[in-house]
Every structure is written in C-alpha cells, then in structure tokens.
Design a protein that fits this description.
The chain has about 270 residues and is of the alpha/beta class. About 45% of the residues lie in helices and about 15% in strands.
Length: about 270
C-alpha cells in the first residue's frame, strides 16, 4: 500500500509541475480518478473537458456532468461531429488514430482558448498491452498521460478510487460505441444509436459488463459468463429480443465466449 501511495504522490507532484491542465473527462474510472487528482494538485487550475459525440453513450454525458458538479470543478463541453471527421465513417483499422487525432486537436484548441497549458488523458499502464492506435495520436499531439507517468495500473486506480470514495471505483469500462462495429463496415449515426439503445437496456437490466457487437442485422451480445443463466431466463431474454428487434436488429445472439475487451481486434 505504501508503494501505491508513493505512486499517487508522484502523480500529484507531476500534475503540480504542469501548472494548469484540462483533463479529457469521460466519466470513466481512469478519467474520474485523474480529474480528482488534478483538482487536488491544482485547484482552479484544473478543469474537465468533455468531448460529446455520436460514439459517446448518452448516459455517460449525464454521469460526467453530475460528477463535475459533485467535485465542484468547471466542465468545458465540446460538441463534436464525429461522423464528419475525414476517414472515420469508413471505419479503417486505424479508425481510433483518426478519431483521437481530430478530437484531441479540438480539445487542445479549447484548452488553450481557456488559458490552460496542457491537456491530460487517462490511459494507464494496462493500456499499453492491446492494439490502441489512439495512443499514437495522443503522443504526436503532446497530450499528457499522468497515470502512465506515475506507473499506475487499472487495478491500482480502482483501489485508490475506492479509498478516496469515488463513485467510479467499480464502474465497468464503456469503450467508444464505434468499437462495436467491425472494421471496414461503415459507421453511421443510425447504427450508433441502435447500439447505444441496445446497451442501455442491458444496463437497466443490471448486467455489470457487456457489449452489443453489430454484425449487419445481427446483434451479438457479450456478457460475463456468470450472467448467462440470468440472460437466458425467458422473461429477460424475451424482453431483450423484443427491444432489439424494435430497434432494427433481425437476429439476437449470445456470444458463448462471453465478454472480452477488444474482441473486434481478432481480425487484425
């Protein structure tokens, strides 16, 4: 635990050295923890900056606004037409790079317009192990990654978040909705809205971790295996099927492998 607190002290010292920072804030586990640390280190010289776009789940917008109010930190909202980003709609394998480059360029501009020196984002040490072309864009733009600078892993961030009483300490990760669509298949607002509405039902039904992957008119549901019995209860499965087909899916399937992060990357 002392080693963990040493990492946190290093994080605070590093944030103080930046002078002022705008934290790219999505209301997830990592960015919430980073925002809390930034406010502790810099006070009013820390601000939240949230990019609202088509791939950002609607409920996360509410969570982001609510936490900023709770923490007493200013929030800057950037409404971005993600589908207008050149190359994004076509969904190539470097889609995340294309998107992050455009989004963080906008966030940098807004931060500087509001007199904040740096933009910081919440990737941690665990993010270095998967296919994440977005990290390349972040590095090219000079975006700061304080959690990686402090050597913090996801489990350590959750542990400290619980200790500090942050509401996100056990929150499941909710990646960009575009990750639900196979590379090479066009991303449209209609598809993203279908996925968002489908996943919202799973959230409302109490499933803690899930993805709805879109394969044409098929919805492939990924949930954790311990919840297979629950989702196959007739009352639950019937409700899901009825809701998904009303959204426009013709078939609804359960992935027998269960939930897995980055499952669309198997084609790379």
């Amino acid at each position: 635990m002392n080693e963990l607190h040493d990492k946190y002290d290093h994080l605070i010292s590093y944030l103080k050295s930046l002078g002022s920072v705008a934290v790219a804030f999505s209301a997830g586990v990592d960015s919430t923890f980073l925002l809390k640390a930034a406010q502790e280190a810099l006070g009013e010289n820390a601000v939240a900056i949230t990019a609202q776009h088509a791939s950002f789940p609607a409920r996360e917008n509410h969570d982001a606004e609510e936490f900023c109010h709770l923490l007493g930190v200013k929030q800057i909202v950037a409404k971005i037409d993600q589908l207008a980003i050149e190359g994004f709609r076509e969904n190539p394998k470097d889609r995340c790079y294309i998107c992050k480059k455009a989004l963080f360029t906008t966030l940098l501009t807004l931060a500087h317009e509001n007199d904040f020196k740096y933009v910081a984002e919440g990737s941690n040490m665990d993010d270095l192990g998967d296919y994440r072309p977005g990290l390349k864009a972040i590095a090219e733009l000079g975006i700061k990654s304080p959690l990686r600078k402090a050597g913090l892993t996801k489990s350590e961030i959750r542990s400290l978040s619980e200790e500090f009483g942050l509401p996100t300490w056990n929150k499941p990760p909710f990646a960009c909705l575009a990750t639900r669509i196979p590379y090479g298949e066009e991303i449209t607002e209609e598809k993203l809205n279908m996925i968002d509405a489908a996943e919202q039902l799973l959230f409302d039904l109490g499933f803690p971790q899930f993805r709805v992957r879109m394969h044409g008119d098929i919805a492939r549901i990924e949930i954790e295996r311990p919840f297979f019995d629950k989702i196959l209860e007739p009352e639950i499965s019937d409700r899901i099927y009825e809701h998904f087909t009303k959204l426009g899916f013709k078939y609804v399937a359960l992935d027998l492998h269960g939930y897995k992060t980055g499952s669309m990357n198997v084609t790379i």
